UniProtKB/TrEMBL annotation:
Catalytic site positions: 114, 132
Organism of origin: Methylovorus glucosotrophus (strain SIP3-4)
Subcellular location: Cell inner membrane
Pathway the protein takes part in: Protein modification; lipoprotein biosynthesis (signal peptide cleavage)
Name of the molecule in the record: Lipoprotein signal peptidase
Residue intervals passing through the bilayer: 62-80, 87-104, 124-144
Catalytic activity: Release of signal peptides from bacterial membrane prolipoproteins. Hydrolyzes -Xaa-Yaa-Zaa-|-(S,diacylglyceryl)Cys-, in which Xaa is hydrophobic (preferably Leu), and Yaa (Ala or Ser) and Zaa (Gly or Ala) have small, neutral side chains
Signal peptide coordinates: none
Listed EC numbers: 3.4.23.36
Stored NCBIfam families: lspA (TIGR00077)
Length: 151
């Protein structure tokens, strides 16, 4: 279980470090074009994925924090119970690290810092961060793992 918690800690550390760099280097809303399809930005997300409920008046901060805490407890239980299932635990560790990285922002700042911004012509993907990436990769791996033949 230690290696899975170490992976989660690495995700949290990378997430918080990159957000720290963005906060120091960018003013809110500032864009730095890197390629024709990718910018570094500084946005604040008070909601969930794709700014869901970001304009809900503040209760969403407590709600999403509670969800992150409950999910983290469930993930820790599952990591302990299934510690020999490598892909499953790897995926859970990514989700745990991402959830706790964003939870830290929510509790300390009141919002989540997003800074990775992809676009193509007039099509824009909502900005996201390392924690969001870890959660997405973790969920994709959990789906992949669910198709594996269980012995």
């Amino acid at each position: 279980m230690r290696k899975w918690l170490a992976l989660s800690a690495a995700v949290i550390a990378l997430d918080l470090y990159t957000k720290h760099l963005v906060i120091k280097a960018f003013a809110y809303g500032e864009h730095l074009p890197i390629t024709s399809f990718f910018d570094l930005v500084r946005y604040h997300n008070e909601g969930a994925a794709f700014s869901f409920l970001s304009q809900a008046g503040g209760w969403q901060r407590v709600f999403f924090s509670a969800i992150a805490l409950i999910a983290s407890g469930i993930i820790l239980f599952m990591l302990r119970r299934h510690s020999t299932q490598k892909l499953f635990c790897f995926a859970l560790a990514l989700v745990l690290g991402g959830a706790l990285g964003n939870l830290y922002d929510r509790l300390t700042l009141g919002y989540v810092v997003d800074f990775l911004f992809f676009h193509y012509q007039s099509f824009y993907w909502p900005a996201f961060n390392v924690a969001d990436s870890a959660i997405c990769v973790g969920v994709a791996l959990l789906i992949l793992d669910s198709f594996k033949k269980k012995s």
